[in-house]
Each structure stands twice: as structure tokens, then as C-alpha cells.
Amino acid sequence: MQKRRDKMQNPSLSSKIISILSVFLLLAFAGLLLQNFFLKKKVRDLETASYVYKAGELAKITKKAYPKARIIVNKEPGLWDRTGEKKVELVKELEIGGKDEDPNYRFYRPGPVIADNDGNIYVAETSEGVIRKYDKHGKFLLGFGGKGSGPGEFAGKNIVYFYDKNSQLIYVYDYGTQRVSQFNRRGDFVGSIQINLDIVPYAFSMDSNGYFYFSYYKRSNNKVIHKYDDHGTLVSSFAEPVHYPHQMRYIEFSIMRKVSPGALFIADSLLYFSRANPYEILIFSIDGKLKQAIYTYKSIIKPAQYKILGKNHYRHIPPAESTLIGTWHDKIINWIFIPGFVSKARQSMMDIFDLNGNLLSRLLINERIWASFMDASGRIYGLKQTSEGAVRIVVFSLKLKSI
Fold this sequence. Notes:
Elements: H1 2-9, H2 13-47, H3 55-65, E1 70-74, H4 79-83, E2 86-96, E3 110-115, E4 121-125, E5 130-134, E6 140-145, E7 159-164, E8 169-174, E9 179-183, E10 189-194, E11 203-206, E12 212-218, E13 223-228, E14 234-238, H5 250-259, E15 263-267, E16 270-276, E17 279-285, E18 290-296, E19 305-310, E20 313-317, E21 321-328, E22 331-337, E23 348-354, E24 359-365, E25 368-374, E26 379-385, E27 391-402
Parallel strand pairs: 1-18
Antiparallel strand pairs: 2-27, 3-4, 4-5, 5-6, 7-8, 8-9, 9-10, 11-12, 12-13, 13-14, 15-16, 16-17, 17-18, 19-20, 21-22, 22-23, 23-24, 25-26, 26-27
């Protein structure tokens, strides 16, 4: 009997181990819950509109930094939309794709759509490393490039390109080979220039003097537009990344890298730069001096978000992207692509400003259209995603009607 009482008063070693493990498991579970709580709080903080400045506040910051620049702050609706004086319409002229029997009319990972002086259309199918050419009626003509690292080939899927109407050449930057390749309109390789960049650029263009301008966030100098000469040497960098109203947290550097670059357009010795988060259009001289800044209060564009995927894993979801900036009939045209999770009904947006930066009209479009090029006649070229997920090339003409 005494032995039994001693055994009851002195639990076995295994029972003690089980008790200790139970405590550790409870603490670990509590730690996971606490960690997930703070992670969700951090993400909620990033999802709020306060993590970027609003239009009026951002205009004040820009004015203080660039006192000689012209600063414009617009409110919805635009002048034409308020008065009914004029109406803007997009008229579809052409759609390419959907011919399932011909692989040249199917698009899996297409790049931006551009056009030459005669209306011929070019688009990269990055899954093949080939740039396809179509005539102005949508007939496939040829393909050029190809996967590889040799002259005129592309080593990766990350390529950006534009058509220069003066030289009538297509310039393609391939991040895999770190070079700009030049092609004529027949698809013949003309030459290349080695330009080493830190990351894949969002867009690039060229001025009439042969200088290249790349849009990407460079952390070493905290700028987003970078000018290179035709030898691949960095000449200058300008344009600040997006501004934050508080000291940046580690996760926000990844947001800034994604939302700070934007669309580029060069005309009449001016560089037009547009980004959507926050919405701003900056107009520089080609030597990097800010001439004008345009801000607009907007109701449909929301800040970037992070979606929690698991423990310490989250995915950045940009709310909108500026895909096209250009000029037409003394007007500034700015195109914004809006992801479906922000708005199911309005998935693209086009704003028209006068050259002084005043908002004239805002056109909301219920199709997923990624516009990327506008010619001198006001035709807009881009990609459309159908409700079934298929991708098409689309061409619209821009019509302005007086009411």
C-alpha cells in the first residue's frame, strides 16, 4: 500500500515529458496566432488609402520640391463631362485572334502591341521569344527574333519594345541578354547595344538624339527614369518613386518597386511619364527637369494590396497600372488598366487632359483592355482579355464629337 501511495505521489518521467510538451505546443500555437494577427494587421495597414498621399497632399510635396513646375490638381468629373460640351467615343476597328487552327493567331504570353507608320502591327509572343507582324487588316505576315542569346535572339521572356517613327526601326530590350536589339520592318536584325539594368524595366523609349529612357525603380539612387546613351552608359536619372506619409517598412520597398515605374512617351523634347498608384502624370524636359505635374482625385482606383497566402507569405496585388500615355490633337491621353478585383464593371479607364493639365473627360470601359500604343491618327492599340480568358489584339479609333 505504501508503494502504491509513493507511486501516485511521484508521477512517472513520461508523464512529466507529456506535460512539458503540451505546454510547448500551446505556447507555439499561441505564437502562431499572435504572428498571424500582427501579419494581418500589417496587411490591413497596407490596404488602407493612407499609405500613399492623396492628390492634394502629393501636389503640395511636388510644388515644394519643384517650385518652378506647373502643378495641376483635378477633381471628377472632367470639364466636358460636366458641361456636356463634347463626348469621346472609342470605335473598334480591328480584332486579331481566335483562329484556333492557326497558332499565329493565338496568344499565350503576349507583350505590348505597337504599330509602324503604315499601320502594321507588332506583338511579342514571349512564350516563343518571337515578335509577330500583322498588316493593318490583321493578316499575319512574319515572325522574327527567336529564343537564344545570339544576334537578334531573345534569351528570356522579359522583353519590352517600341517603334521609332524617325528611324523606322523596332527597338527591343531583352533583360536576359541585357541588350537593346534593333530590327527593320522586314524583321531583319540591324544591330544591338549592351545596356545592363538592375531589374526588368516597365517601359522604355528613345528621344530624337538617340538617348534611351528606361522606367524602373533603382534603389541605389532612388530614381525611376534612367537615361542611357547609345554606348550603354548611364547619363542621368530622375523622377522620384512614390511618396509615403510615414517611415517605410520593409514590405513597402517591394510595393514601391512595383508601383513607382510607369508608362513613357516622348514628343517635342518632352518626356511624359504616367503611373496609377498614386495617379500622377509628370512631364519632364529630356534633361530631367520637371515642367508640369498633373494630379487627379479618383474614386475607382484604390491603393495596392497584399493577400495573405500563409505563414509569412503574401502576394502583392497592384490595383491599377498606367499602360499608355500619349498626345493627340493637343490633348494628353492617359490609359489605366484596372484589375477585376477592384471593379467588375469598369476594367479600363481613359482620361483626356488639355495641354495645361486640366481634366476634360474620363471614359470608363467595361472590358479588360491593356492599351499600349497610340498613333498620330488617334488609333489605340492594345490587348483585350475576353470573359473566357482568351487574349486578342484590338485596335480602336478615338472619336471626338461636339454635342
